[in-house]
Hints:
Elements: E1 2-3, H1 6-14, E2 19-21, E3 28-30, H2 36-46, E4 55-57, H3 61-67, H4 72-81, E5 86-91, H5 98-101, E6 106-110, H6 115-124, E7 128-132, H7 149-154, E8 157-159, E9 170-173, E10 178-181, H8 186-195
Parallel strand pairs: 1-8, 2-8, 4-6, 5-9
Antiparallel strand pairs: 2-3, 3-7, 4-7, 5-6, 9-10
Helix pairs in contact: 1-6
Amino acid sequence: MQTTDVDVAAAAIANGEFVVYPTETVYGLGADALDSAAVERVFEAKERDRDKPVSLAVESVAAAATYTEPTDRERAFMDAFLPGPVTVLVQRGERVPDVLTAGRERVGVRVPDHDLALTLLDAADTPVTATSANVSGKPSARRIADVHAPIREAAAVVLDGGETPGGGSTVVDPSTGEIHRRGPLADDIEAWLAEH
Length: 196
């Protein structure tokens, strides 16, 4: 179902289903990130290898700290760059399931800089998976029409936010100072890491 009704999408997430939602980069697949079965459905829809972790999205840095265990430096980094097109790797909390992180102890955290996404995350009242709404290895979708048909059809709700800017988030581990994937703000992030 294609809609702009955030409450319908949030209800689908609460029912263990997944939705397609817009971000400040591309369209993402959102399911309850704390529900192992829901996360499995995301992996299946994307045809994603189970050894590749998926990030989680929350509506604020404060919310992220509820589900993760950031150090003081990581929290300062998150305060500096979130919301925004940045994925921050931090220690996962005990409620974050193994399937989401592919068994790793760290999880990617996103706070998207997109009003509709933030409204959805607030309404869902749980962390939501943050992974592009595409079959693994295929191009990411900037428009609803670009989302691969099998994913559109499997999604309980497609939340229409118009065309997104595109690109991918910059993936950073502030604990090591390593940028795993360069994207927006990478130069600013490098400068911050060098100074802190």
